[in-house]
């Protein structure tokens, strides 16, 4: 793996952070500061020529808690305008990443083409964010559709500086795009991976370099692109929030709160997770494009810098709606239900921190869940979902086992 080298025109800003943390017990929201970051934990060496070398695959869990609290922040020089191709998934929570990334790049003066998997006339394109692609076109971007295996034919004659694959979850899906990009002379290859590939740890949060599941499809992709591209980076998101998202997250809570129903949460409700506004994900990706030398060869947790408890998420959603909330806890095994079908988040501590992005790219998050949830609730009401008839069969089974009455 090639070491990351900062161009001589870039400047390094040395910063020191006091060790601290803050807690909001009323909402169950926690902040874990960057001060716990250790440059040693990133296997970082700074040479006399100001070259920063980072080896994300060699990071060990035993070294990631070292005591150093110094950090480097890259101060980018004026970015050159680039031609960027975004290969975007046609479903799921990740689809919105490509949409926001395209808009941010266009706003920064880059040339953008978004290649959506599938057909333009499919029913999927009638849903957000696809039904808002006119915003990309009106900003000067291009939109095309097709299959990854046919990317060379669909884009015949086109040339790009950067390719982001925001579609494939395994090497079979990404290889056609990566191989085409390599043969086409693409200078930088970016990949949307997933924080879900981390192995459970006794020392949360997950930080870049923690042990991952070797058999996870995303891991195979990260290894492959690191072998064939000199300039590459991988981004591991978790849950996200933002206008145009078509995967239920906060809506799951709103559905129950606006109807005066109890909100059933598995376990204690103190499990920690991470929800980031998609604008933060797109800003991190844009920094990687505009600071390619710094980003090269690195893995970034593409997440917010704050965690939230599951109970805290319910209370924040209720506050955004201006309504009370009744939370009930249950044991999925005792009730006899699959928590993955009954609840939108993992039933365990599952959160990461964006340490590498802060240190290497100088990235700062803007996610503000209380405010972001107000925006989402306004949209929830605007589309009439608060009046939509919804069945709660799994909820009813849980509440019946707990002998919790539900108003009809």
Explain how this protein is built.
With 408 residues, the protein is α/β, with parallel strands linked by helices. The protein has one domain: 3-Layer(aba) Sandwich (Rossmann fold). It has helices at 95-107, 134-138, 151-154, 171-183, 217-228, 250-257, 278-290, 292-295, 310-321, 332-335, 339-342, 355-361, 369-382, 393-401; strands spanning 11-16, 22-24, 29-31, 45-46, 52-53, 70-75, 83-88, 111-117, 142-146, 162-166, 188-192, 232-237, 239-241, 263-266, 272-273, 275-277, 298-302, 306-309, 327-330. The protein has a seven-stranded parallel beta sheet, with helices on both faces. Helix 6 (250-257) packs across helix 9 (310-321) and helix 9 packs across helix 13 (369-382). The longest helix is centred in the C-terminal third of the chain and has 14 residues, at 369-382. InterPro entries: Epimerase_deHydtase, NAD(P)-bd_dom_sf. This is NAD-dependent epimerase/dehydratase domain-containing protein. Residues 92-302 form the NAD-dependent epimerase/dehydratase domain.
